């Protein structure tokens, strides 16, 4: 894992050398060379990208390619100290791309380059975006350093900046620091916490299962004259629902209705039916779905996705088909999440025929499968012993522009490992690194289990040593 260090003198972010993963152990490969297949995908990525996007308008394609090239160019220049006369557009565009993809290392690297530019002027909006991203990426210390840098630049933090810092601390589990930040805001003139700040803090409490703090925060809001809004109620309703605290959840909904100025919306509907559906209380889920219909609150695609997953978990597959028919008849547009959910549910049930049917329907509707789609297919085929279909999936991916990730490789490695095809498993392990996907605990554990099952104790030990070595260098891999 690359580390960012703040130099107290220059207050710029620098990087240590990236860790390059090693290759598969020689005893495991037995001298064989990786076969063609997914290995080609990385080398032909630019060609595959163009083929995969050929249906897009030429102007849009040109913009995408220019953006990708600009980000790569900016990343290279960020490694050097000499670039301080760059044009604003490519740097700001590259920063936005990194932030939107939650690539916090790249984002801070580009931000360091941004701060070197002669035209650079500190802006609260930039710091707000970066702090929000760091919260999502569980980087509270980086958020703290970034906030310090902002202050050294003479920029006065806004309410949005403080709220983003609260989010960064709270989502990372540092609720004490988040609460201290809210208290600090009260001491700053014209920077009192508002309903967004408190709703953010409430969301963090729900995420961290600290429901004991919610009443205190709500009381503090009332004391300071901060009125609850729809987001406030939806946040705590969703939090209670995910924790299966149904009585308090319904009580919060009753308070929302009695308030008179905060009516439930589709987000409220989705939170409540998710809570009951996820816990297997299908009758209550359907009851509340009907109740919200009577309130005049219409479902959206997320509602239908929740219903599909809930029916699937309960083994009510006829209901899944009914929901899909309803979507089609009412002219809703199913999303990739919809199809992925249906494919996953039928796959887990071992209904390969229905799963394939919806996979074909998905493609016929012009929707591109992603790694989540392929993971569900691979898992289902592997469980059914249809390894040739897994190989077919790999060929499909080779001719597509899908961006492969670690969970996908874990799926295919597991499929061939369980089938005893260790050569193919090792080939995919090498392909994983060729595609810049870092192996994680699941990758190593899966392969070690496969080698042990075949009695290849030495090979398993070598892989375990590599796993420990990678963990020691990067801190990203867990060990037994």
TrEMBL record:
UniProt entry keywords in alphabetical sequence: Repeat
Xref: PROSITE patterns: PPR
Pfam families listed in its UniProt record: PPR, PPR_2
PPR repeats: from-to residues: 123-157, 194-228, 229-263, 265-299, 300-334, 335-369, 370-404, 405-439
Transferase found in the keyword field: no
InterPro entries membership: PPR_rpt, TPR-like_helical_dom_sf
UniProt key word Glycoprotein: no
Signal sequence coordinates: none
Top-rank taxon, per record: Eukaryota
Record-linked PANTHER family: PENTATRICOPEPTIDE REPEAT-CONTAINING PROTEIN 3, MITOCHONDRIAL
Family: Belongs to the PPR family. P subfamily.
Protein name: Pentatricopeptide repeat
């Amino acid at each position: 894992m690359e580390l960012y260090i703040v130099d107290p003198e220059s207050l710029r972010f620098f990087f240590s050398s990236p860790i390059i993963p090693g290759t598969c152990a020689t005893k495991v490969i037995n001298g064989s060379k990786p076969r063609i297949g997914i290995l080609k995908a990385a080398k032909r990525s630019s060609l595959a990208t163009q083929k995969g996007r050929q249906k897009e308008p030429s102007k849009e394609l040109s913009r995408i390619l220019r953006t990708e090239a600009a980000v790569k160019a900016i990343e290279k220049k960020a490694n050097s100290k000499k670039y301080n006369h760059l044009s604003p557009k490519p740097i700001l565009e590259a920063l936005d791309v990194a932030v939107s993809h939650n690539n916090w290392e790249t984002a801070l690297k580009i931000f360091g380059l941004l701060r070197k530019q002669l035209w650079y002027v500190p802006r609260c909006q930039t710091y707000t975006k970066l702090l929000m991203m760091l919260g999502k990426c569980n980087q509270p210390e980086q958020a703290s350093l970034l906030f310090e840098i902002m202050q050294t630049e003479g920029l006065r933090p806004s309410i949005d900046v403080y709220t983003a810092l609260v989010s960064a601390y709270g989502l990372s589990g540092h609720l004490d620091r988040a609460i201290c930040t809210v208290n600090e805001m009260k001491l700053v003139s014209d920077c009192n916490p508002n309903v967004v700040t408190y709703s953010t803090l409430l969301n963090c409490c729900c995420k961290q299962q600290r429901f004991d703090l919610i009443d205190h925060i709500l009381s503090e809001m009332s004391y300071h004259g901060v009125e609850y809004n729809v987001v406030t109620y939806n946040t705590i309703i969703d939090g209670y629902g995910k924790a299966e605290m149904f009585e308090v959840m319904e009580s919060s909904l009753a308070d929302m209705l009695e308030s008179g100025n905060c009516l439930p919306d589709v987000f409220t509907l989705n939170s409540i039916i998710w809570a009951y559906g996820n816990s297997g209380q299908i009758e209550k889920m359907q009851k509340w779905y009907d109740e919200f219909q009577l309130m005049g609150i219409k479902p959206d695609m997320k509602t239908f996705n929740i219903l599909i997953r809930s029916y699937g978990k309960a083994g009510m597959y006829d209901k899944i088909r009914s929901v899909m028919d309803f979507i089609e008849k009412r002219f809703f547009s199913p999303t990739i999440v919809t199809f992925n959910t249906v494919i996953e549910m039928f796959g887990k049930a071992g209904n390969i025929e229905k799963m394939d049917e919806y996979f074909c329907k998905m493609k016929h509707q012009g929707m591109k499968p992603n790694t989540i789609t392929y993971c569900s297919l691979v898992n289902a085929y592997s469980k059914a012993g249809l390894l040739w279909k897994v190989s077919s999936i790999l060929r499909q991916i080779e001719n597509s522009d899908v961006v492969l990730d670690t969970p996908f490789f874990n799926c295919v490695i597991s499929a061939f490992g369980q089938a005893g095809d260790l050569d193919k498993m090792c080939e995919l392990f090498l392909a994983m690194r060729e595609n810049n996907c870092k192996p994680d605990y699941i990758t190593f554990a899966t392969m070690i289990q496969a080698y042990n099952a075949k009695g290849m104790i030495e090979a398993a030990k070598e892989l375990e040593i590599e796993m420990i070595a990678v963990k020691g260098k990067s801190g990203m891999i867990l060990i037994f």
